[in-house]
Amino acid sequence: MEVAATRWYLIQCKPRESFRAELHLRNQGYECFHPTIRVEKVRKSGPQWVTEPLFPHYLFISLNGIEDNWYPIRSTRGVSKLVTFNGAPLPVPDQIVRDLRSCMDSGKKLSTPLTFVEGEKIRIVDGCFKELEALFTARSGEERVIVLLNILNRPQHICLPIQAITHL
């Protein structure tokens, strides 16, 4: 008799419903892992720290290939689908989940400070402009910023990922 191992799989959630999906899957007895990150959001009342999924629209679920009933998953509130490749669910390597859990359990805070003031001097810490100073100009969506960089004695506006800059 073959004993199937429990493996981690990836669930795609409906937009802004990964916490709901996690709650309903746990209520059905499934083991889930939903890594989160603390992010500073600018609100009308001022900056506020909120918890968001590290991987928006996704969470991990532990399933046994033979013993677990996979059918209720797709009809669970907040769940869009089980991620498949060529029509079959592909397990996530255990080491990835172990590393993510280790990072979360170790108390390392995964956070992204997003408060920059227009005109503030910043340093670029990643990419081809690494180590150059620039001025913060504006945000461009949730994950990108526009900075003013002096290139060849001319000011140029450049769009960068927010992780590529830091306070000076």
TrEMBL record:
Pfam families: NusG. InterPro entries: NGN-like_dom (IPR006645), NGN_dom_sf (IPR036735), NusG-like (IPR043425), Transcription_antiterm_RfaH (IPR010215). Residues 5-104 form the NusG-like N-terminal domain. SUPFAM superfamilies: N-utilization substance G protein NusG, N-terminal domain. Gene3D superfamilies: NusG, N-terminal domain. The keyword Aminoacyl-tRNA synthetase does not apply. Keywords: DNA-binding, Transcription, Transcription antitermination, Transcription regulation. Belongs to the RfaH family. HAMAP family: RfaH. Enhances distal genes transcription elongation in a specialized subset of operons that encode extracytoplasmic components. Interacts with both the nontemplate DNA and the RNA polymerase (RNAP). This is Transcription antitermination protein RfaH. It comes from Pokkaliibacter plantistimulans. The lineage of its organism: Bacteria, Pseudomonadati, Pseudomonadota, Gammaproteobacteria, Oceanospirillales. The gene is rfaH.
